[in-house]
């Protein structure tokens, strides 16, 4: 015969089991919603770049003569940058999936800051509009980073690509690195459209896109995952922005080992 205490314990156990089931159902529902959203975003976001790739590939295939090399190369570059763009979107989505399913894993390595910065700038250069320029520090060779390299690359890629995308031609994008004793700060400033003040509080929400940005392609997930990843790793991201003037995004992350 069960005592009152045993009965109470059993009720508590059942409640907990019930809670766990509800929790996993909720997670499953969220993942399903994510997949539906992913499918609609993918079909929408991939359409324009894919048709651009097809056009460029067709044209590149037509310019076969030696004196048409310039034209051929121009189209091949377009293909390269559009494929990179699609690849970035896919990486962002994979990140969300991993964050949501609790499968995000991090890997700490020691690497030179210049390695990641140079790689990100190299890729970003392909996206620059006419007369846009990226100013970035050349004296970072001795800065060694102990952090998740992929997350740093994903963060800088998102921020620099946004700076390019949301700024007009003939503007400057400035990358500044500030080395502190136990942290590293990277600031990315642009002279672009900025973020309307009344929408600034939503900017890190998943899928949120400001009114003035809607003419440009985008998914509204980049800033959300950058913030999630950085915060999981003890870092932060903040920004200042003025509509019509520009924006500065600042990331800071722990880095004890800043000099080689
Ligand atoms: P996406 O660029 O794909 O829309 P993000 O999450 O990277 O998604 O950015 C969310 C929104 O924040 C953008 O749609 C845009 O409205 C705004 N935003 C981000 N970076 C900038 C920037 N550098 N200048 C102006 N607006 C920006």
TrEMBL record:
Q: Which reactions does this protein catalyse?
A: ATP + protein L-histidine = ADP + protein N-phospho-L-histidine
Keyword Coiled coil carried by entry: yes
Domain Histidine kinase: from-to ranges: 41-257
- Its EC number(s): 2.7.13.3
Q: Key word Transit peptide present in the record?
A: no
Q: What class of enzyme is it?
A: transferase
Name its GO BP terms in alphabetical order: regulation of DNA-templated transcription
Q: Which UniProt keywords apply?
A: Coiled coil, Kinase, Phosphoprotein, Transferase, Two-component regulatory system
Q: Which GO terms describe its molecular function?
A: phosphorelay sensor kinase activity
Report what the protein is called.
histidine kinase
Q: Give the species.
A: Aequorivita aquimaris
The part of the entire sequence present here spans 152 to 411 of 411
């Amino acid at each position: 015969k069960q005592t009152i205490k045993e009965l109470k314990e059993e009720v508590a156990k059942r409640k907990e089991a019930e809670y766990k089931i509800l929790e996993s159902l909720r997670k499953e529902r969220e993942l399903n919603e994510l997949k539906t959203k992913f499918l609609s975003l993918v079909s929408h976001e991939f359409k324009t770049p894919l048709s651009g790739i097809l056009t460029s590939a067709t044209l590149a295939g037509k310019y076969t003569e030696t004196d048409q090399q310039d034209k051929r190369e121009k189209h091949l570059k377009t293909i390269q940058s559009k494929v990179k763009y699609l690849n970035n979107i896919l990486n962002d989505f994979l990140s969300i999936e991993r964050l949501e399913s609790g499968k995000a894993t991090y890997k700490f390595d020691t690497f030179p800051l210049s390695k990641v910065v140079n790689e990100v700038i190299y890729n970003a250069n392909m996206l620059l509009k006419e007369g846009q320029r990226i100013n970035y520090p050349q004296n970072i060779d001795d800065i060694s980073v102990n952090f998740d390299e992929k997350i740093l690359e994903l963060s800088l890629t998102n921020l620099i690509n946004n700076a390019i995308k949301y700024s007009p031609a003939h503007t400057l994008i400035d990358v500044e690195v500030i080395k502190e004793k136990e942290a590293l700060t990277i600031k990315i400033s642009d002279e672009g459209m900025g973020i309307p003040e009344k929408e600034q509080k939503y900017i890190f929400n998943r899928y949120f896109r400001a009114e003035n940005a809607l003419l440009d392609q985008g998914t509204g997930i980049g800033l959300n995952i950058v913030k999630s990843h950085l915060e999981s790793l003890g870092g932060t991201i903040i920004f200042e922005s003025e509509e019509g003037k520009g924006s500065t995004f600042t990331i800071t992350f722990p880095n004890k080992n800043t000099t080689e």
